[in-house]
Amino acid sequence: MTPSLPESPILRPTAPLIDPFQRPIQYLRVSVTDRCDFRCTYCMAEHMTFLPKKELLTLEELDRLCSAFIGLGVEKLRVTGGEPLVRKGIMTFFEAMSRHLESGALRELTLTTNGSQLAKFAQPLADVGVKRINVSLDTLDDAKFATITRWGRLPQVLTGIEAARAAGLRVKINVVALKGFNEDELFPIVDWCAAEGHDLTFIEVMPMGDMSEEARLDQYWPLKDLRARLAERFTLTDLAERTGGPARYVRLEETGQKIGFITPLTHNFCESCNRVRLTCTGELYMCLGQEDMADLRAPLRASSDDAVVQDAIRAAITRKPKGHDFDYSRQKVAGQMSRHMSHTGG
Ligand code: SAM
Ligand code: SF4
């Protein structure tokens, strides 16, 4: 049996979190580890130096911090990484967060995963109230999968996705659009998701980490081009539906599928950004594409009073910038972040 965490009380909000651009902040993405069992080429270097374990927030500290955010009106919590399911004892954290689902303070508890550990974790996740998960999968070809993830094996992920479905979890497949890599799989991936009943979202590759400018531009497949390819076979209807995030959706009239596009490069949707990102060391990034961050670990460790932490969160939100500066036009990479995506939590 997994040990349970001592409960930290929720402080009721005195005022919701609103940033300087009048955007309500209701969505927290928390990276619970920078480690991963894959080494996706667009995300990590092959030889990564990971943080020493002592730098990481403990599961109890993660609980306290996330509960402080929930007390300030955060309604949606996405657990990510690195690979969240390789963090030791991670189910203890999910179990702890499920009390906020039960109380109604949290509307959704979810995660983004590479799927490698789902065979083991799908059912326990469903048991604590997770309803939907995002699984990152850029190809359905065994050899290409091994190439792009360096260390991953496709059958293991497909078994994991199957386990998720068997556990009653709704699965959304996230595909990073990569020129010269998965262009030829656009229709097979769409068809597979339709046949399996999975939602599907495409993502433009972002300039995070230490990849050279040339390599980054080489792999960039703008989603406006992907969309034009889709329109050669399907009738696309734009949907007004928004989830408060950067995704825009279309319906394929022929299949009824809903497809999401996350287009930080070709179309910047920062004006409606409702999220902030917490790293596994307690750094709060108010924007994925800016360097500014607030250290929440220091106030967390300095005082057992959660009000101190909430004050630090409020102060950080007043610094949320208008948006990122990613730009590949003019054949140059602008807005590059040296941080890897696995640090901030994609
Ligand atoms: N390991 C988990 C996974 O792969 O789903 C969670 C963390 S991963 C950093 C989260 C998401 O970020 C994945 O969908 C991944 O494809 C995406 N990602 C990583 N690096 C990226 C980049 N440079 N541009 C766009 N998406 C990226
Ligand atoms: Fe790991 Fe996810 Fe990054 Fe791939 S995208 S290396 S699975 S953290």
From TrEMBL:
One of its GO terms (biological process) is Mo-molybdopterin cofactor biosynthetic process. InterPro entries: Aldolase_TIM, Elp3/MiaA/NifB-like_rSAM, MoaA, MoaA-like, MoaA_NifB_PqqE_Fe-S-bd_CS, MoaA_twitch, MoCo_biosynth_MoaA/MoaC, rSAM. GO terms for molecular function: 4 iron, 4 sulfur cluster binding; cyclic pyranopterin monophosphate synthase activity; GTP 3',8'-cyclase activity; GTP binding; metal ion binding; S-adenosyl-L-methionine binding. Pfam families: Mob_synth_C (PF06463), Radical_SAM (PF04055). Keywords: 4Fe-4S, GTP-binding, Iron, Iron-sulfur, Lyase, Metal-binding, Molybdenum cofactor biosynthesis, Nucleotide-binding, S-adenosyl-L-methionine. It comes from the Bacteria. Binds 2 [4Fe-4S] clusters. Binds 1 [4Fe-4S] cluster coordinated with 3 cysteines and an exchangeable S-adenosyl-L-methionine and 1 [4Fe-4S] cluster coordinated with 3 cysteines and the GTP-derived substrate. [4Fe-4S] cluster 1 binds at residues 36, 40, 43. Its EC number is 4.1.99.22. S-adenosyl-L-methionine binds at residues 42, 82, 136, 206. It catalyses: GTP + AH2 + S-adenosyl-L-methionine = (8S)-3',8-cyclo-7,8-dihydroguanosine 5'-triphosphate + 5'-deoxyadenosine + L-methionine + A + H(+). GTP binds at residues 29, 78, 112, 172, 275-277. [4Fe-4S] cluster 2 binds at residues 270, 273, 287. Transmembrane segments: none annotated. It is an enzyme of class 4 (lyase). Its cofactor is [4Fe-4S] cluster. Pathway: Cofactor biosynthesis; molybdopterin biosynthesis. Catalyzes the cyclization of GTP to (8S)-3',8-cyclo-7,8-dihydroguanosine 5'-triphosphate. Monomer and homodimer. Belongs to the radical SAM superfamily. MoaA family. This is GTP 3',8-cyclase.
